Amino acid sequence: MVGTSKNPPKEKAVTAIQDVFVLSPPTLASYIETMTAYADQQPLFKCYRGQRNSAWDSIPGLLRPEYAELARNEKRAVRDLVSVHPREFAEDETMFDRLVRMQHFGLPSRLLDVSQNPLVALYFATDPGPDKEASDGAVTAFAIPERREKYFDSDAVSCLANLANMTEAEKKEIVGIGRLSKGTPKADEIFRINDESVYQRLHQFIRAEKAHFLPIIDPTDLFKPYYVHPKMSNRRILSQAGGFIIHGLVPPRKIRFAHPIEEKKFVIPSDAKKPLRKALELLGISDSTLFPELDRAANRIKLSYSA
């Protein structure tokens, strides 16, 4: 994860909302036309996230204010879940695999669910919500630079995923070391930082899943989000053309990193949600196709026969 360039790129924003668009007219044809135009203008790899409330930020559950206590006890929460359901995690080879499974079962993690299919994102953006209160939805499009695009077995992904094995005190120590760094660290500083005991601890967790991992972590990489192509072994991920944006630690100050993930938000008016959902169902985008699990199917059948 150490850069080999003699002249590292100047720091820029980690992520940036460039524009907010309101879908008009709020029809499926208009949405497809809008997304096609966006894709044509933006050559980078893209993924999408739909949320039923346009006011919500696109951040992982673990980093949301309401889960602050869970974030402080991330290591313990991970072990609590694995200890009571060891069989479900028996085949997971890496910490990233475990985080994906935990996310699947509803435990907030440092993973943000996204899809490569903008129609799937639109389905989630048109969710009326459990309270049925009217709210505009939103689809956020992420343009991923090549340097921020990783696969499930990437060293960068292992570094961020294994932060979940660190205690709150250890993570604060890493942030403290980051606070002392000015800009992009040079090679000799990177080697010095990796000799710190807290980094040695992180190396141990990574080497438990990658025996040949070179213990040289660029500390700035622990604060950057990355898009991750997961294994398509999970039926829900496969059905939703899913992927994840994995987040590391919160930067100790307003650090600006090179190659930002750029965001654009497309607002879906609340009164358009119901007709858009009906149109999506005609295209095969529905609860039954996106959530193929047995428990979801049983619940759908139960509701279909309810008075």
Specify the overall morphology: globular
Could you list the spans in which at least 5 consecutive residues all have pLDDT below 50?
1-15
Order of helices and strands: EHEHHHEHEEHHHHEHEEHHH
| Largest sheet: number of strands, sense, barrel closure | 4 strands, mixed
Structural class: alpha/beta
**Terminal CA distance:** 58 Å
Query: Which strand order does the major sheet show?
Result: 1-8-4-2
Oligomeric grouping of the chains? single chain
As a percent range, the share of helical residues equals: 25-40%
The domain tally reads 1
Strand content: 15-25%
Q: Report the total helices.
A: 13
Number of DSSP-assigned strands: 8
- Rounded to the nearest angstrom, the radius of gyration is 20 Å
Mean pLDDT: 89
Explain this structure.
- The chain is an alpha/beta fold.
- The protein has one domain.
- It contains 13 helices and eight strands.
- It has helices at 28-41, 68-72, 74-84, 95-104, 118-125, 155-161, 168-180, 187-194, 197-209, 235-239, 273-282, 287-290, 294-304, and strands at residues 15-22, 45-51, 111-115, 137-144, 149-151, 226-229, 242-246, 261-268.
- Strands 1-8-4-2 form a four-stranded mixed sheet. Strands 3-7-6-5 form a four-stranded mixed sheet.
- The radius of gyration is 20 Å and the shape is globular.
